[in-house]
Amino acid sequence: MNASFHMGSYDEKVFGFPVARCELRNIEQVIAAIRYAQTHAAKLIVVRCPSTETATIHHLENEGFRLMDTLIRFVGSCRLCIQRGGKSGIRVFPLRETDSTVVGQIARKSFHAYPSHLHSDPRLDRSRCDDYYERWSLHCCAEREHKREVFVAQVDGQIVGFGVTRLVSPNVLQGVLAGVMPNTNGFYTLRSLLIRSLKHALELGAGQFEISTVLNNLGMQRLCTRVGFEHRNTLHTFHRWLE
């Protein structure tokens, strides 16, 4: 795995300071990540590292990084998962222009206190963490294209959930972001959104679907395994503040 470094496009707009985001595997890449963040005047470094890289994880801890969450990645065959997913009784369809505002509202409410690496960092303002997911969802609604689609779930005439997908390769569609309005039947709404996304993948000619969730999101993990997804890998997310 090659290291990936970039400056978070939404982070500075939401939190008010530059944030460096890095995905890496070895100790040399950790050193390069710190250098990259310092060069770009980042105040915070967000690092993802495979959970199998114990030596690198220990080095991150020695360098002042703190664990914030663990991300589990799943992969599944679209045809198999559709067969195992069963029929959906919830109406799901592509986003309409009039739905964008409610998608932003759902994102904000569904990710409030969500155990993400952002909400887990005590130095980040919790309300701004909610802002982050709202802004991200609205950006997805505004930037729909052939490779990215937004689906919404409707119950009794009300939009209660959404899901964003992105084509990352000719054969792989990725679930990017999803949310369900609190106090609704979240499991069945997410299942309906997932099944529709899997069908969309086949419409694009993609046979596989990738999806990620945090370790503490047991409901999403149950959904993924129930419809036939398999665990692919696990990544730890670390933060380090640069004073």
Question: What is this structure, in a nutshell?
Answer:
It contains nine helices and ten strands. The chain is 39% helix and 33% strand.
Structural shape: globular
What is the helix tally? 9
Give the CATH architecture of the largest domain: 3-Layer(aba) Sandwich
User: What CATH first level of the largest domain would be assigned?
Assistant: Alpha Beta
The total tally of domains equals 2
Descriptive overview:
The protein is of the alpha+beta class and 243 residues long. The protein folds into two domains: 4-64, no CATH class; 73-232, Aminopeptidase. It contains nine helices and ten strands. It has helices at residues 11-15, 27-39, 54-62, 78-85, 100-110, 117-120, 126-142, 186-203, 218-226; strands spanning 4-7, 19-23, 44-50, 66-77, 91-94, 148-155, 158-169, 172-180, 208-214, 230-241. A ten-stranded mixed β-sheet has the order 1-2-3-10-4-9-8-7-6-5, sandwiched between helices. β7 and β8 form a beta hairpin. α4 (78-85) packs antiparallel against α8 and α5 packs antiparallel against α7. The chain is globular. It starts with a strand and ends with a strand.
Describe the structure using short key phrases.
Aminopeptidase; alpha+beta; globular; 243 residues
Topology:
Elements: E1 4-7, H1 11-15, E2 19-23, H2 27-39, E3 44-50, H3 54-62, E4 66-77, H4 78-85, E5 91-94, H5 100-110, H6 117-120, H7 126-142, E6 148-155, E7 158-169, E8 172-180, H8 186-203, E9 208-214, H9 218-226, E10 230-241
Parallel strand pairs: 2-3, 8-9
Antiparallel strand pairs: 1-2, 3-10, 4-9, 4-10, 5-6, 6-7, 7-8
